């Protein structure tokens, strides 16, 4: 009998532990002791974010591992052991990226020591983009950086970059420093293959003028290309195939639908439908309530009676647009010695385009 009671008690306890409960608490910055707004709190039962006071409420179960994360902070794991709460969680600042070395001109600095506005682009984010234009690949990757189309060139080779907005003189091109050589010609930067670039750093504030002069008034883009390493010849081949589709479609009427719309418009205006258009002829009758009822829509075989212009029932979106296939191949060969280095990069890009015969 005692064994049965013990088993029943253990079973009852397991049910209690398996029941879902709600845990509440507050998340703060360990250094400033201020609440963290928008911190992410995640358990096995769901994910929530802290409110303007740093408070949260999340469903949990016994032995759940609750993860607290916030941008720029070290994540923290908390094991729920049935506490009724509220609990207090303090997150510490993350220094993982502060030791990163950033080139700002004639010197290299740790990121933690920088006082100006500098953006470092992760090459892993843009190397998989099927695009041989690094300028277009930067679009949307750097806050405040805008790629401005110029001339309507579909290849994008005439685009320019604006880092510090648009000025009244109309010249917004930044200074490009590629392997120590400076230029204001954006085509030099655009001619580089993304797979041959080691890193890209962008100086966005006016302090860059003290290093590069007045040419840096629109910002500076510092590009370092890959170099051949000492040792054996290294060969790397990258392939990327992507399909794009025309998705912004407009619902249009077919031939019969357009004919019905014209007929109804004429009836609403009190006109004779057969006299308002030469595209259609109609057969209608008078209903029991005296209203006209459309019986049949006849499509005129030729427009204006010209046999060279037959009537059509075509959705031109289906005719003009097709899936676009983008194929990007890159071959890199590199080697080096104690005195020199060599890197050769060959790139092939083919974009079939979304419009027929527009590659």
Task: State the gist of this model.
The chain has helices at 2-18, 123-126, 134-138, 186-190, 209-212, 255-268, 273-276, 316-320, and strands at residues 21-29, 40-43, 46-49, 55-60, 65-69, 76-79, 87-91, 101-103, 108-110, 118-121, 146-148, 160-162, 175-178, 181-183, 197-203, 220-225, 231-244, 280-286, 292-299, 324-336, 341-351. By secondary structure, the protein is α+β, with helices and mostly antiparallel strands. The protein has a five-stranded mixed beta sheet. It has a four-stranded antiparallel beta sheet with strand order 3-2-5-6, with no helix packed on it. The protein has a three-stranded mixed beta sheet with strand order 4-1-7, with no helix packed on it.
Walkthrough of the structure:
- The protein has eight helices and 21 strands.
- By secondary structure, it is an alpha+beta fold.
- Mean pLDDT is 78; it is low at 10-17 and 109-116.
- The chain starts with a helix and ends in an 8-residue tail after the last strand.
- The strands form seven sheets. A five-stranded mixed β-sheet has the order 10-15-16-13-14. It has a four-stranded antiparallel β-sheet with strand order 3-2-5-6, with no helix packed on it. Strands 4-1-7 form a three-stranded mixed β-sheet, with no helix packed on it.
- Helix content is 16%, strand content 35%.
- Strand 2 (40-43) and strand 3 form a beta hairpin.
List descriptors.
single chain; extended; 5-stranded mixed sheet; 4-stranded antiparallel sheet; alpha+beta; 359 residues
Distance between the termini: 84 Å
Mean pLDDT: 78
**Series of secondary-structure elements, N-terminal to C-terminal:** HEEEEEEEEEEHHEEEEHEHEEHHEEHEE
The residue fraction in helices comes out at: 10-25%
Q: What share of the residues does DSSP label as strand, in percent?
A: 35-45%
Ranges where pLDDT stays below 50 over 5 or more residues in a row are 10-17, 109-116
């Amino acid at each position: 009998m005692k064994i049965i009671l013990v088993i029943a008690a253990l079973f009852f306890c397991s049910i209690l532990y398996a029941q879902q409960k709600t845990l509440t608490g507050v998340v703060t910055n360990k250094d400033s002791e201020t609440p963290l707004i928008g911190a992410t709190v995640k358990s096995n039962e769901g994910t929530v974010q802290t409110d303007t006071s740093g408070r949260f409420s999340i469903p949990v179960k016994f032995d759940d591992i609750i993860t607290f994360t916030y941008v720029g902070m070290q994540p923290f794991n908390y094991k729920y052991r049935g506490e009724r709460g509220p609990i207090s969680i303090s997150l510490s600042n993350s220094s993982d990226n502060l030791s990163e070395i950033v080139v700002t001109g004639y010197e290299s600095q740790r990121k933690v020591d920088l006082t100006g506005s500098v953006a470092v682009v992760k090459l892993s984010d843009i190397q998989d983009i099927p695009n041989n234009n690094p300028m277009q690949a930067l679009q949307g990757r750097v806050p405040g950086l805008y790629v401005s189309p110029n001339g309507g060139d579909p290849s994008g080779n005439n685009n320019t970059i604006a880092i510090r907005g648009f000025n009244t003189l109309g010249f917004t091109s930044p200074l490009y420093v590629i392997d120590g050589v400076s230029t204001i010609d954006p085509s030099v930067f655009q001619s580089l293959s993304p797979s041959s670039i080691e890193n890209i750093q962008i100086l966005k504030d006016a302090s860059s003028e003290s290093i590069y002069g007045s040419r840096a008034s629109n910002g500076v883009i510092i590009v370092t290309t890959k170099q051949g390493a000492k040792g054996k010849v290294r060969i790397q081949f990258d392939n990327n195939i992507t399909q794009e589709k025309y998705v912004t479609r407009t619902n249009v009427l077919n031939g019969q639908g357009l004919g019905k719309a014209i007929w109804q418009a004429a009836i609403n205006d009190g006109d004779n439908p057969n006299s308002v258009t030469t595209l259609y002829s109609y057969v209608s009758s008078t209903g029991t309530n005296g209203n006209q009822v459309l019986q049949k829509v006849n499509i005129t075989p030729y427009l204006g009676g010209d046999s060279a212009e037959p009537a059509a029932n075509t959705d031109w979106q289906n005719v003009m647009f097709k899936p676009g296939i983008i194929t990007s191949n890159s071959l890199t060969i590199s080697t080096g010695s104690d005195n020199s280095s060599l890197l050769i990069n060959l790139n092939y890009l083919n974009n079939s385009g979304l419009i027929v015969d527009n590659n």
